[in-house]
Specification:
Layout lengths: L1 H15 L1 H8 L4 H10 L5 H4 L7 H13 L11 H4 L1
Length: 84
């Protein structure tokens, strides 16, 4: 039973961190990743903002960086490149 428990834990942790690895590989930090979720309609900023310590400047800088990379449109939605 202990071996099964350990195997299930390893599988869960591997699956759980896959999105973090993908974001890091794409050069996205936490706020940039959050903005991609907001940009594809998964979350709203109001859902996230109360639980994070990012300033208005942090939000603006991260969004500008994603726009500069062609991933985020001016309206905050993901571009075609942002969804690829």
């Amino acid at each position: 039973l202990a071996r099964l428990w350990r195997a299930a834990t390893i599988l869960r942790e591997h699956r759980g961190d896959g999105h973090v690895l993908a974001a890091v590989h794409a050069g996205l930090g936490g706020l940039e990743t959050t903005l991609t979720h907001i940009g594809d309609g998964v979350l709203g900023r109001a859902d996230v903002e109360p639980h994070r310590g990012w300033s208005e400047g942090d939000w603006a800088t991260a969004a500008a960086g994603l726009r500069d990379r062609g991933l985020l449109a001016a309206d905050g939605r993901l571009t075609e490149s942002g969804t690829a």
